[in-house]
Write a structure and sequence with these properties.
This protein folds into three domains: 178 residues, tt1808, chain A (Alpha-Beta Complex), CATH 3.90.1570; 54 residues, no CATH class; 46 residues, no CATH class. Helices cover 49% and strands 11% of the residues. The chain contains 18 helices and seven strands. Strands 1-2-3-4-7-6-5 form a seven-stranded mixed beta sheet, with helices on both faces. A hairpin with a 7-residue loop joins strand 6 and strand 7. Helix 5 crosses helix 6 and helix 8 crosses helix 10.
Length: 324
């Protein structure tokens, strides 16, 4: 008898919410996890993105997936389905959230999206009236009620940097892999703050190393971030200095930290050990080099011919003084 795949207890919307919150908060998009859709209602499994600006900024657009980045709404409701396929229940649930939230808001500022990690079946799309737009992975329904919900198929979104973060949650392994590779190759991963970079790295490890879905390993956002931090530290500690510097953008490091902040991590003798004496002395004026030296200590280092030149110089100075 074929074994039924055990359903994971991992709260996927919270993992996506953690990623979006850490990613979008720095560019002034507020992200709420389990956001309330009524004035007095329990929180539901929905993500809420809110922006304060009149339109998306360049920094925001660089991080928002197709479909979302094209809307003019200021309040974005995201219903995320990871293990469930697109079906009537998913649409009805999203429509309910959409209706309840709009009861509190101006309809013109709200847009709801259903994010489907699994690729929707053609028969289901047809039944619900969903058709491709001119943007890959973005579907709109021709049915009057359902058209309130825009469908995003994560597997079908274009392999572009602005889609890569949400495509990390696509159900197809190859689409996940392309998303993580794109984040690394584009430099986006290294540009993230440490906690978010650890989370993305932990998410990759959870899927491709631990094979969490297959083994039904339940993980919280905090555990995934800690996993990424541990693996990242272990990896970096194994790199030689040149590869370590290449791993991070040298110019970004120098731009982020002042030279004295970097040098303060070393003892003076450690810094001087890497420099030639002439390199050190070239940074000082002649009078600064002589500070702390007695005349006999200076003269002891001179050759006989240099002493003769010094004697001539002294006689010349004395003559100049007498003539004044």
């Amino acid at each position: 008898m074929k074994k039924t795949k055990k359903s994971s207890n991992t709260e996927w919307h919270k993992l996506l919410g953690k990623l979006l919150k850490d990613l979008l908060s720095p560019v002034d998009i507020h992200v709420s996890i389990n956001a309330p859709v009524m004035s007095e209602s329990p929180k539901v499994d929905i993500l809420l993105l809110k922006r304060d600006t009149s339109k998306w900024t360049t920094a925001q657009l660089a991080l928002l997936p197709d479909g979302v980045r094209q809307t003019t709404a200021t309040d974005i409701l995201l219903e995320f389905k990871y293990t469930e396929s697109l079906n009537d229940d998913a649409i009805q649930q999203t429509l309910t959230y959409d209706y309840l939230y709009k009861e509190r808001k101006n309809h013109n500022v709200v847009q709801s999206f259903l994010l489907s990690a699994r690729k929707p079946q053609k028969s289901t799309l047809k039944k619900l009236g969903y058709k491709n737009t001119n943007i890959p992975g973005v579907y709109r329904s021709s049915f009057r009620l359902i058209r309130e919900v825009v469908l995003l198929s994560l597997n079908d979104l274009a392999n572009q940097p602005h889609n890569a973060f949400v495509k990390c949650f696509a159900s197809h392994r190859d689409e996940k892999e392309k998303a993580f590779e794109l984040l690394e190759q584009s430099g986006l991963l290294n540009s993230l703050a440490n906690p978010l970079r650890w989370f993305v790295s932990g998410l990759k490890g959870y899927w491709f190393t631990l094979k969490g879905e297959e083994m039904d390993i339940e993980m919280t956002a905090e555990q995934i971030a800690d996993l990424g931090k541990r693996w990242g530290n272990a990896y970096l500690s194994s790199l030689p200095v040149d590869e370590l510097l290449n791993h991070y953008d040298r110019q970004k490091i120098l731009a982020q930290f002042k030279p004295q902040e970097i040098l303060s991590q070393f003892k003076p003798q450690e810094i001087l050990a890497e420099l030639k004496p002439e390199d050190i002395l070239s940074q000082f004026k002649p009078q600064q080099r002589l500070v702390g030296l007695k005349p006999q200590e200076i003269l002891a280092e001179l050759k006989p011919e240099e002493l003769d030149e010094l004697q001539d110089y002294i006689e010349k100075r004395k003559k100049q003084q007498r003539e004044k």
